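Long-time lurker, first post. I've been practising inverse folding by hand and with some scripts of my own, and I keep getting stuck on stretches where the structure tokens seem ambiguous. Below is the full token string for one chain I'm working on. Before anyone asks, I'm not after the true native sequence, just a reasonable design that respects the backbone. If someone could post their per-position residues I'd love to compare against what I wrote down in my notebook.
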């Protein structure tokens, strides 16, 4: 049967505002014979203040029972740093084994970039999503004293690295340029760096059509600014990928356009789609938030669920909308309405 069971976590700040527009465009894009069932989850700062809970087990189990999750944004200045990030967002990524954190970057015609000359930018970062320094493996000794020692140990397993590297090769193989760049820092982080490089090289022998190269992460940041057109698919660890994708957003029209998918490729768990931006409490409630990143995340969601033509229609609508922007301000809702109208045709 053609139906989509979608769990929706609007979250904090501008999250609910952009999610409303994302759902509007999703409904407009879906063929009439595909039924959309949504269930909303009250998770985030409000819930934490009210009950002290971030993600109760019952909610996690109920979320699992969906085809996909759409998330707005998590985080509020009234909640101590790390509580919602670890207790909700990262907990979901780990629990649902979202080992591919997919973050495409494209410089759409008409969008502003701080880069000189308008390079053609169209690459995708495959950021590992379940390991690295994000696992919480560390601790502190003599906390709060002048002799404090803190560790944050990056976890890298052959299993975890191979599966994400393989996914990145598959994606590179499917793209016209067929190019894959590994980004790490194996001149300093020799243990994890060599694990990544060895697996990258070994798996690469199965993909003779894919051209590969390697960059240290610091050098990669230079190329993101000076020669972003050199990139096609990039595979990297959780933290390098976090940093690089903010930079990627900054050179391709800003964080208001950056979409992401937290993917569990096997489909054992629902994949989760979210804008790369945060909850932006400073503009929450003002109608100034750009819902485009959420709308593009909805396109990733549709493609993941096998609705490629509808995903492409949404991307084309965004492209046309960006090209038609004349600088006059529009509200979150107006942008959503314009995109929904273009998708409907
Ligand atoms: C992101 C965010 C998260 C991350 C934070 C909020 C935990 O920055 O999705 O990029 O670091 O992954
Ligand atoms: Mn980030």
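-- Answer (accepted) --
I ran through it position by position. Result:
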């Amino acid at each position: 049967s053609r139906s989509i069971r979608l769990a929706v976590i609007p979250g904090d700040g501008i999250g609910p505002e952009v999610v409303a527009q994302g759902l509007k465009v999703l409904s407009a894009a879906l063929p009439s014979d595909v039924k959309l069932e949504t269930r909303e989850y009250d998770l985030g700062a409000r819930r934490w203040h009210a009950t002290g809970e971030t993600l109760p087990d019952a909610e996690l189990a109920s979320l699992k029972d969906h085809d996909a999750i759409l998330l707005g944004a998590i985080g509020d200045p009234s909640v101590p740093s790390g509580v919602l990030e670890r207790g909700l967002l990262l907990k979901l990524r780990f629990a649902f084994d979202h080992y591919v954190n997919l973050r495409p970057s494209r410089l759409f015609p008409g969008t502003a970039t701080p880069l000189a000359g308008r390079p053609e930018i169209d690459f995708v970062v495959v950021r590992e999503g379940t390991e690295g320094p994000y696992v919480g493996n560390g601790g502190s000794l003599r906390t709060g004293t002048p002799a404090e020692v803190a560790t944050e140990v990056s976890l890298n397993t052959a299993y975890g690295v191979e599966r994400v590297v393989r996914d990145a090769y598959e994606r590179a193989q499917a793209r016209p340029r067929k190019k894959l760049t590994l980004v790490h820092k194996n001149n300093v982080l020799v243990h994890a760096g060599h694990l990544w490089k060895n697996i990258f090289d070994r798996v690469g022998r199965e993909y003779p059509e894919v051209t590969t190269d390697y960059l240290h992460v610091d050098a990669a940041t230079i190329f993101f600014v000076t020669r972003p057109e050199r990139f096609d698919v990039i595979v990297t660890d959780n933290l390098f990928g976090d940093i690089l994708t903010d930079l990627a957003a900054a050179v391709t029209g800003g964080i208001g356009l950056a979409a992401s998918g937290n993917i569990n490729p096997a489909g054992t768990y629902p994949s989760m789609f979210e804008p790369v931006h945060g909850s932006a409490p400073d503009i929450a409630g003002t109608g100034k938030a750009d819902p485009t990143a959420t709308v593009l995340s909805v396109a990733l969601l549709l493609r993941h669920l096998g609705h490629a033509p509808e995903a492409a229609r949404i991307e084309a609508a965004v492209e046309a909308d960006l090209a038609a922007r004349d600088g006059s301000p529009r509200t979150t809702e107006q942008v959503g309405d314009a995109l929904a109208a273009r998708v409907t045709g």
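A couple of notes from the structure itself: The pocket of 3-isopropylmalic acid (ligand 1) is lined by residues 85, 89-90, 242, 276 (CB under 6 Å). The longest helix spans residues 308-324. Happy to go over any region you disagree with.
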